[in-house]
Design goal:
Length: about 400
């Protein structure tokens, strides 16, 4: 991959604080940390960062349209980012996933952005379909080269492009690219299917949320399956029923899905239909309810479940929403606990990066203490191995499992 013009290499000098942060492995350089640069930079070109002694610090993608001005590709000793470097970098990342994919699981994340050394780029696999999602316009000038690399190294049937909302206008106007565009292969009719732990799921890779499915909850879905035998299960914010289908295969008597989206619930029903050959899935009663989950939980406190799963969408998309989100997580947990039978388990998850794991866990534990019921904390979980989070801002996923008894004097 080459610099997009014949201009001199873009050179940046940064503040002392930024030098320390970059040496510590952080992959972002913000605009206010740049002390000087030799010329204006173009989106997607390589910028070389030097310290106060004119010693090489790092190299990364320059993005003049973003306050996150450089996304670091390499730090330490100087290297040449040629085609061979990119190919070896890609192979090294893919090899890390070798143990996660087998005949029973062919849906997983292959590249997780900055934490895998590919800043602002995510690559997900759904069987023979690859989906690349871009979060920065810096990748646009290199998309053809990335496409060629993926075709050569992976031989997928198709490659679908997904774009974050903030770069869709630039993609269309400057590069004639669109969210959901199929870069090669045939456009899928409806969703594409893939396997996860032997279960068949559908992913809407063209129009669905993220890249079409929430692959990051795979390990938690497996844990839920181990807890579900003989249970009546409530899956709040169910999306396309991932937790529900695992619970059903784990031996749940019934599963009730709650979601505001009729489209998501239809996907859940299709996922159950795809797995009717499994006797446990076929035997499980599956109900879908289109509703505002917060309202439903408040109005149905008399109903009882053995396993309650709370996995809402992000409740804090910006720092200003953090305090309100922590309160909402506590409220959700409190309402969920009211629905639990004696010995019932609450599974509470958060995908809000602006709410830290300690803050989230304390909100749930505080709700549990206030419920006046003895409880045991079974475990907490974080990121699965195909979703590494190597710096603070990348850490978003956390989940806690609590088992409750009745309050003293009850039951």
């Amino acid at each position: 991959m080459t610099t997009p013009s014949n201009a001199p290499r873009l050179r940046l000098r940064v503040t002392a604080t930024a030098e320390t942060i970059l040496r510590g492995g952080h992959p972002w350089l913000f605009a206010e940390s740049i002390r000087a640069q030799n010329r204006e930079g173009q989106s997607g070109e390589l910028a070389v960062i030097f310290d106060r002694n004119d010693t090489f610090l790092a190299i990364g993608f320059y993005d003049p349209g973003s306050p996150l001005r450089v996304r670091v590709l390499h730090a330490g000793k100087p290297v040449t980012l040629d085609a061979a470097w990119w190919r070896e970098n890609f192979r090294r990342v893919i090899r890390r996933r070798d143990s996660l994919s087998d005949a029973q699981t062919n849906g997983l994340r292959l590249i997780n952005g900055e934490s895998d050394g590919w800043p602002g780029l995510v690559l997900d696999r759904y069987g023979p379909t690859l989906v690349v999602k871009l979060y920065t316009a810096a990748w646009f000038p290199r998309l053809e080269e990335i496409t060629g690399l993926l075709r050569t190294e992976m031989q997928p049937e198709r490659l679908v492009l997904r774009l974050s909302r903030n770069i869709q206008e630039a993609a269309q106007q400057q590069f004639q690219l669109a969210d959901g565009q199929v870069l090669f292969g045939e456009k899928p009719e409806g969703g594409v299917t893939f396997l996860e732990t032997g279960l068949c799921f559908e992913a809407d890779v063209v129009r669905g949320q993220k890249t079409g499915f929430f692959l990051d909850q795979r390990e938690n879905r497996r844990i839920v399956a181990s807890l579900a035998r003989g249970c009546d299960v409530l899956n709040a914010f169910s999306f396309s029923g991932g937790f529900s289908l695992y619970a059903a295969r784990g031996g749940a008597k019934s599963v009730t899905d709650l979601d505001l989206s009729a489209h998501a619930l239809a996907g859940a029903r299709r996922n159950f239909a795809l797995n009717q050959s499994d006797p446990a899935v076929a035997a499980c009663r599956h109900e879908t309810v289109q509703t505002d989950v917060f309202d439903w939980l408040e109005k149905n406190a008399a109903r009882k479940f053995d396993l309650v799963i709370l996995d809402p969408p992000s409740l804090a998309k910006r720092e200003a929403e953090r305090a309100r989100a922590i309160t909402a997580y506590g409220r959700l947990a409190a309402d969920g606990i009211k629905l639990l039978t004696r010995g019932g388990v609450l599974v509470a998850a958060s995908c809000s990066a602006h709410v830290s794991a300690p803050e989230f866990f304390e909100a749930v534990r505080s709700a549990a203490r206030s419920a006046g019921r003895p409880f045991d904390e079974l475990r907490t979980t974080g990121h699965p191995p195909d979703h590494p989070a190597t710096f603070a801002e990348a850490q978003y996923l956390k989940c806690v499992y609590l088992r409750f008894e009745e309050a003293a004097g009850r039951g």
